[in-house]
Amino acid sequence: xxxxxxxxxxxxxxxxxxxxxxxxxxxxxxxxxxxxxxxxxxxxxxxxxxxxxxxxxxxxxxxxxxxxxxxxxxxxxxxxxxxxxxxxxxxxxxxxxxxxxx
Length: 102
Known about the structure:
The chain is mainly β.
């Protein structure tokens, strides 16, 4: 339940003092997947994904066949697998792409 509340706050982009330190989510367009690759996904960055109706946080690695999300199952899940519903890059405050206003 606490995870749901935190995700809701991030998604709604609330601007309280506590939220100024909260990471932001940058939506990744899944329609840009080509085979098992995506131009906006960076290996080693943190991502939040909805796969088969469940939320997972993890990182991508590059394998011989393309990108693999390491947070699902023992071997991870390939980017071109069925079941991907949403994908967000977790952008920490101060990183490029984040909303770092002073």
